[in-house]
Design a protein that fits this description.
single chain, alpha/beta, Peroxisomal Thiolase, Chain A, domain 1, 32% helix, binds acetyl coenzyme *A
């Protein structure tokens, strides 16, 4: 039997209207535009309006992806949504989005893999398609990470933004996703976490203790090393070489981490999609937002090979190598 591939047939994304620049943040914490730009590459971020949720952004991104694909919501047989900031504890944000789209009846679930959430969702969706289980799948990465920010903490508040991206996958006899690699090491949990919740309990602190805690320098070191190994593994899994890759579409956390991965792949920065300057770190939203920007701006063309990767809390790390 001929192999089944999953192909990305369209992309979409959504960002909140409100833009907060580095200069705006200078007014609330002891930081500077110069520090933020030189350490991270970030110039601005979008921040969700009061009452605007992860599901709202996910819904918009999904609508735009479905419209670009010419696929009706009722045709979907699976929705997988990566997020670590769901609207409510349950139902999952995937179920909330499914109902708003009118895709009722298909399987729908969330994946929590922190910043690697979209890459995990894509890897899972790919398996559903390859197994013959699903033919048309909506994969979303969506976050309102700024809801976990302590705006008095300069170490973290400058780094994050809100946003969502989505892709429509279709079963095809043509490639398609060549390889996906998913990994986690929970031994690193305390370097990047938000250690309150339903079962552990919340704290008698502002925002019930819900805030990101991060050992930035340590996360940086492990991220660079891990992503180096991940790109090697992904190339090997796809049976490809560095020179086969047309575009690197990395997780947008820090320009210096992105540059390190590009260097490892011997890729000039002109072949790397960078949106961290505009969006900051939108966690699960980051890779699909960058992909949608790359597609709609005409940079990425059909038939090109794309390497997508992400690294985040857990730690988790994941990649996909695909022919667009
Ligand atoms: N403005 C000004 N100064 C600051 C700020 C700020 N916003 N934040 C920290 N500093 C200071 C520190 O206090 C420190 O001062 P000191 O030297 O007097 O002690 C100095 O700047 C340098 O701090 P470092 O932490 O060493 O700075 P570094 O160069 O490592 O950059 C950063 C920090 C940007 C956080 C970087 O380490 C990083 O990007 N880490 C990775 C983050 C990441 O990738 N997360 C990924 C996933 S996120 C997720 O999964 C949800």
């Amino acid at each position: 039997m001929a192999p089944i591939y999953s192909r990305i047939i369209a992309t979409g994304s959504a960002l909140p209207e409100r833009v907060v620049s580095n200069a705006d943040l200078e007014k609330i914490v002891d930081t500077s535009d110069e520090w933020i730009r030189t350490r991270t590459g970030i110039r601005q971020r979008h921040i969700a309006a009061d009452g605007q949720t992860t599901g709202d952004l996910a819904f918009l991104a999904a609508q735009r992806a479905l419209e670009a694909a010419g696929v009706k919501a009722a045709e979907l047989d699976l929705i997988v949504l990566g997020t670590t900031t769901p609207d409510i504890i349950f139902p999952s944000t995937a179920c909330l989005v499914q109902a708003r789209l009118g895709a009722n009846g298909c399987a729908a679930f969330d994946v929590n893999a922190a910043c690697s959430g979209f890459m995990y969702a894509l890897g899972i969706a790919d398996k559903f398609v390859k197994s013959g289980q699903s033919k048309k799948v909506l994969v979303i990465g969506a976050e309102t990470l700024t809801r976990m920010i302590d705006w008095n903490e300069r170490e973290t508040c400058v780094l994050f933004g809100d946003g969502a991206g989505a892709v429509v996958l279709e079963a095809s006899s043509e490639p398609g996703i060549h390889a996906t690699c998913l990994h986690a090491d929970g031994g690193y949990k305390e370097l990047l976490w938000n250690p309150v919740g339903v079962s552990t309990g919340f704290k008698d602190e502002p925002n019930h203790g819900v805030r990101i805690r991060m050992a930035g320098r340590e996360v940086f070191k492990v991220a660079v090393k891990t992503l180096d190994a991940l790109v090697d593994e992904t190339l090997q899994a796809a049976g490809m070489h560095e020179s086969d890759i047309d575009w690197l579409i990395p997780h947008q956390a820090n320009l210096r981490i992105i540059e390190a991965t590009a260097k490892r792949l011997a890729m000039p920065m002109e072949r790397v999609i960078v949106t961290v300057d505009q969006h900051a770190n939108t966690s699960s939203g980051s890779v699909p937002l960058a992909l949608d920007y790359a597609v709609r701006s005409g940079k990425v063309q059909r038939g090109q090979n794309l390497l997508l990767e992400a690294f985040g809390g857990g730690f988790t790390w994941a990649s996909a190598l695909l022919r667009f």
